[in-house]
From TrEMBL:
The chain crosses the membrane at residues 27-49, 98-117, 129-146, 178-195, 216-234, 249-267, 311-335, 341-360, 367-387. One of its GO terms (cellular component) is plasma membrane. The keyword NADP does not apply. The keyword Cell membrane applies. It holds the Pfam family Chromate_transp. It comes from Cohnella nanjingensis. The gene is chrA. One of its GO terms (molecular function) is chromate transmembrane transporter activity. This is Chromate efflux transporter. Keywords: Cell membrane, Membrane, Transmembrane, Transmembrane helix. It is found in: Cell membrane. Its main location: membrane. Belongs to the chromate ion transporter (CHR) (TC 2.A.51) family. It is a multi-pass membrane protein.
Amino acid sequence: MAEKKEIEGDAAAVERRPGYWRRLGEVWLVASKLGFTSFGGPVAHLGYFREEYVRKRRWLTERSYADLVALCQFLPGPASSQVGIGVGMMRAGLPGGLAAWLGFTLPSVLALIAFAAYADQVPASASGWLHGLKLVAVAIVAQAVYDMGRKWISDRALATVAIGAAAAALLWRNPLSQVAAIAAAGVYGWLAYRKRNEPSVPAAEAETHLPIGRRTGALLLLLFAGLLILLPWLRQAGGGQIAALFDSFYRSGALVFGGGHVVLPLLQREVVTPGWVSDADFLAGYGAAQAVPGPLFTFASYLGFASDGMLGAAVATIAIFLPAFLLTAGALPFWQAFRAFPGLQGAFAGANAAVVGLLLAAGYDPIWTTAVASAGDFIAVAALYAMLAYWRLPPWAVVVAGALAGWGMERLM
């Protein structure tokens, strides 16, 4: 009863603040604007958020925003979505976090469901432009591996961790291989790099304000962990296809560090291996996901629709983002103490290196092995990579170029 009273007290305290409903509406409108215009991936999203929330509207100070970004980088899940959720919560409590998530996510969800509804009627093997989307996926993952490698692999030891994680993913064909690789790399980083631990934001900084109490935060974290245990049991107990979908997408959202492209290998194992979605449809959808604004995790909406129609899309979307919501709301009240824990950044250094290795493995199989079958495909991938990495074209433009290249090659062959 005490916990329930605190939850209700947190919500009531937020709603009693002057202008609460106006602030909640503003959160929805601003997040929706960002959902329609935020192209370019998680790093670009953080830049859009800073411009809108900090510089233009002054909902947060620069230091509070940096504090929030630091926390979300350390949590599993889609970092940019978690930052948006956190801003919404700081502005209007838990309902504000929900409004921020819906506004930022819904445009790309609807776009990818529409794409899935059309692509499901056209065999991917007979469509040149869908093949072009697969080539785009090769180029985008290659760029992600390169950029993340430069950022997260700082020495030979971490490079070795990355190669080991890639080898484990390719040679040990088991859903647990990726989790085991990340866990082992985190333990290694904890032991090898713990003395390098430094707070990401000066410790003297004021605590991030959030109208959620620590007890409420603890309950949300327990719910996050409880679902990780309960959902596999429900699935094994005969919960049906929807329970299996929810379990697969919840686990993918809960166990991936780095967000964005990093979720690709987890989703591939969860939906392609059991035969819910074909390799060709998976890669076509991944390519299409690059052309829409908003978080890449909405790729789950496409996969859910391809597997089980509108119900599957709704289940997959909620399941993959639910861990991000629970973790952000649960961890924010504890962040000041959490970030100072010795060895934390060392553990993340090792885990991040493993993430690069897992993405490298996914870049080879299934992406390269499925998409690149000729010299023309290789040339197209090289050109698309150059557009991304050197010409700095926006991802949607590269997606259009890839689709046109695939269409053109089909006509010439």
